[in-house]
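chain below, 395 aa
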Amino acid sequence: MATIRVTAEYVYTSAPAGVIRNGYVEFDEADGTIIAVGECAAGEEVTPGAVTPGLVNGHCHIELSHLHGKFRKGTGMAGFIDQINELRDWAGREEKVRLTKLWMDKMWAAGVSAMADISNDDSSFDVKKSHDMYTRTFLEVFGSEPHMCEGVMADVTALNAVADQTGIDAAPTPHSCYTMSPELLSASAAAGLAKGFLSYHSQESQEEEDLLRTGSGAMYENRKRSGMSTPPVTGESSLKYFIQRLAAAAPAPYSQHILLVHNVCLTQEDIDAAKRVMKNVYWTVCPLSNIFIHNALPPIPLMRVNSLDIMLGTDSLSSNDDLDMVKEMACIHENFPEVPMSEILTWATLNGARFLKKDDVMGSLEAGKKPGIVRISNIDGDGYVTLESSSERIR
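prediction:
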């Protein structure tokens, strides 16, 4: 067995070993299995930068890669939805497949080993099946009118059968409160819960909250102008509304792995409500996407005080300039400098692996695992990534 040894000023293990200054990682050259992790001997030459486990993109829409560079920034959610409706179908299937592979290859080269991805069609399935990156695909559904529910569920069930035939892990999932009738939200949630995994765009914008709390605001006006039904005005948050619709799908508590994505308008009351019924809830933040659309960020201090299982994602190339996990980390550090780099790396590695139920092989640098190994260059003197940092896959 040929063994490779790499060194770094900072080895972020995302494991009980923590951060190792001037450390090393040894791995099997053939299959990438970690053999040993530790501190370099005195006098051993150490490579600048950091070494981390393979990254886990906690939320992406890889099939929207054909929308790179086409969207205006700062439009708010209502304006963003209008752009999606206008532009999402400009490319044919062949071009979508080509760009899906191109961007998955870029992410892989930059160290992303796994991804929680959203799909609305099957254009990404063959790429995912043949790719080295592990993906779990959430088959997202929409439909604002109650009469659409049966047809939409029949369509997503058929799409799930295609995913199963292709050989990728997939399950139906609801999109968000503002694009779905109450009936469809519950029906798609039930289908996801039956598969053990659920992803949901939650509290992404104040417009979403206004829609549910007061039946007002830009998103409400957008929906009415389009002749679409809107969800019931509850006087409470959109996350609480989601919990109500979950209860109509299946009785609480929920032991399934539930992923709440964005969480920009999250409050303590919402956190308490979610924790009461969701036993394996994870919370993805996509900071650069939130800034792109409406120049807002999630309440990271509140999330940390509550010891939430935070994950880090990029969202899509319709709402981001790149799919670069290091840039997302740098954005977190720039806006929340009190968060230790080791914690940010845990959001970008181990927590995502745990959500995907792949932490037995991924997510941390520990003997026996095969997480992928990543080098991050151009870190600052305290071991933090910056906007100048870049990552590359070592194994």
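The mean pLDDT is 96. The domain at 55-323 is CATH 3.20.20.140 (TIM Barrel).
thats it, cya
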